[in-house]
Structure formats: C-alpha cells, structure tokens
DNA sequence: GCCATAAAGTTCGTATACTAACTTTATGGA
DNA sequence: TCCATAAAGTTAGTATACGAACTTTATGGC
C-alpha cells in the first residue's frame, strides 16, 4: 500500500498521465464558455493559423491518429466551426477552412491558453518551468 | 504554422498530453503479452498488493473517477482477473479480490513496468530524471 | 423510530485515442 | 495502358475519462 503508492509515484507513465489529467481537467473548464474541448480548440487554432490544412497535415502537427481526427473534424463541421472543401488537384483530399465563429474567438482562446499555462506552472520557479518543458520535449521528439 | 508549432511546444497541456501519449503507447505494447491494458494492470497490481480494496479506495489511489472504474472493474471481473464480494458491514460496498491468474503475473508485470520506466527516461541524465519526477509530483499533488 | 442527507456504485451520454479493415483516388512501373 | 501499390479518409470496435442522474444502503438529528 505505502509500497504501492511509492511505486506509483516513481512510474513515469502514471505521473505523466495524472499530470495531464489534472492540466486537462482544469483547462477544460476554461474552455467551457467557448463551447469547445481541448482538442477541438487546438484544431480550430491550427486552422485559423493556416486555413486549408488537410486532416493528414493536422494529424502530423497535433500528433494524432487519422481515425481520431476524423471524428473531431466531423463534429466541428456539424456544429459550424469549420468547412470541408474538395482539393482541386487531389480527389482524395479535403481541405479544412475555419468559419467565422472560429476566427472570431481564436485570439481570445490563445490568450486564455497562455494565461492558463502560467497559472498551472505557477508553483514552479522560472528555471524549473523551462527545465520541465525542455524535458517533456525531449521525451516527445 | 511555425508560429503554431512554437505555441504548441510552449503549452503544458499539449506537452503533457503528448508525452503521456508516447509513454502510454509504448507501455501498452509491453503489456500486450499479459492481455491487460495500462489501467487494468494498475488495478490488478493494487489488488494484489492489498486484496479487498473497494472501488472507492481504488479510485483515490489511482486518482480516477468512479464511473471510469466501474467499467474497468466490470471487464476485469468478466475476464476472470478479479472477484467482487459483498462487504459484511456495509451493504453498499463491494470488496475486490484478485484471482489466481492476477497473483501469478503481478510480480512480473511490476518488473516490466520498472524496466520500462528506466528505458523511457534513458535519454535524461540521472539528475534530470529525478527533477522531472519531482516536478510532475508537484503539479499533481 | 423517521426522515433528510450522504455515501457507494451503476448507467447514460459524450469525447478522446488507437487498431484494423475498408473505400476511393493517385501514381509508378512494365 | 493496365495493374500493383500507396496514400487520404471513413467506419467499426474497444478502452479510457468524466459529468450527471439514479438506485441502494447508512447515518445523524430530532
């Protein structure tokens, strides 16, 4: 039991999962007024930054499976956040464009995200914060 | 685009999610021979450590919603990993006990988990590893 | 002893996430 | 040109995750 708790506290998969769970749970609340989930907001931000991205390109940027993205994009299309248009050259490709309501809130969401990030890491010193992000990046890429 | 990638690489929620995604994905493969998922293996380990835990206690240890655990426990019961027994004192409570096949593989799984952890963090120096886990713990608890 | 309240689990609905199988469209080689 | 192969998306199936509503059982105040 104590033994077990010690093992959990030394297990990277567990620690990463729970830290993500906590960050995600709090960020979720912040996004609620916008009517978007975390992943949906990332897709919208990406499309506002670069309209016309394909699902495949989005997947590479957001490090996500095409099957997962397929559903996310479908829901965002149904609720009027984005639009699919056929690519002129390649019949397999659908290019994705943000609709007005996406463009309108993108900047505000980006601000909220950055402010959340500072708040979430406020218990760490500036040096710890940059170390933390550096180590995460080394593990991802 | 570059702008966007920079923002993603500075967003804790994104970095934590992707680091977890990577760790989880690799650990999943390691657990495949056992026929258990990451979460299922944590439940089994906990029950072998402390037979008779309730779903509520498990939820506090593993930091998990009772609704999520309900499903996980159900599947583990159906596939013969654990057993529910009514608590003698409290009619609301079901105590959970590991079955033989759980007890048999628990030690081997724990070894595999620790070995995976070392491998996953092998790109970091010993100092970085301990800093990394310390910072994650500060963000969780 | 009775009732309001709380606690333990279950169920439902929604959204990730991934694998595998499939459809449609492109492309390259013979 | 024709065909094998590959690439882009979709769909189905499984397993997390969580909030909300609900059932069943305990408990505390009176």
Give your account of this protein's structure.
- The structure is a homodimer of 141-residue chains.
- In chain A, strands 1-3-2 form a three-stranded antiparallel sheet.
- The longest helix of chain A has 21 residues, at 100-120.
- Chain A has one domain (2-140): Orthogonal Bundle (Arc Repressor Mutant, subunit A), CATH 1.10.10.10.
- In chain A, helix 2 packs across helix 6.
- In chain A, a hairpin with a 7-residue loop joins strand 2 and strand 3 (94-98).
- Chain A is mainly alpha-helical.
- Chain A is built from seven helices and three strands, in the order αααβααββαα.
- The radius of gyration of chain A is 18 Å and the shape is globular.
- Chain A has helices spanning 2-8, 12-31, 38-49, 55-62, 66-78, 100-120, 126-140, and strands spanning 53-54, 82-86, 94-98.
- At the A-B interface, helix 1, helix 2, helix 3, helix 6 and helix 7 of A face helix 1, helix 2, helix 3, helix 6 and helix 7 of B.
- Chain A binds a DNA duplex (30 and 30 nucleotides) through residues 21, 24-25, 28, 37-40, 54-56, 64-72, 74-75, 90-94.
Short description:
The structure is a homodimer of 141-residue chains. The first copy, chain A, is mostly helical and 141 residues long.
Number of domains of chain A: 1
Order of helices and strands of chain A: HHHEHHEEHH
Low-confidence parts of chain A, pLDDT < 50 over ≥5 residues? none
Strand order of the largest sheet of chain A: 1-3-2
Q: Helicity range of the residues of chain A? A: 55-70%
The CATH architecture of chain A can be given as Orthogonal Bundle
Q: What integer is the average pLDDT of chain A?
A: 96
Measured by DSSP, the beta-strand proportion of chain A falls in 5-15%
CATH class annotation of chain A: Mainly Alpha
What is the distance, rounded to the nearest whole angstrom, between the alpha carbons of the first and last residues of chain A?
35 Å
Q: Characterize the largest beta sheet of chain A: strand count, sense, and whether it forms a barrel.
A: 3 strands, antiparallel
């Amino acid at each position: 039991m104590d033994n077990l708790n010690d093992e959990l506290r030394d297990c990277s998969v567990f620690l990463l999962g729970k830290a993500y769970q906590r960050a995600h749970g709090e960020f979720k609340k912040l996004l609620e007024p916008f009517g978007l989930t975390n992943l949906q907001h990332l897709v919208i931000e990406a499309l506002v930054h670069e309209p016309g991205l394909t699902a495949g390109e989005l997947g590479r940027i957001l490090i996500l499976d095409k099957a997962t993205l397929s559903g996310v994009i479908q829901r965002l299309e149904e609720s009027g956040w984005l639009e699919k248009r056929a690519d002129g050259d390649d019949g397999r490709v659908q290019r994705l464009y943000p609709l007005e309501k996406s463009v309108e809130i993108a900047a505000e969401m980006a601000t909220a995200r950055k402010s959340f990030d500072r708040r979430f890491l406020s218990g760490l010193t500036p040096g710890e914060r940059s170390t933390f992000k550096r180590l995460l990046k080394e593990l991802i890429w």
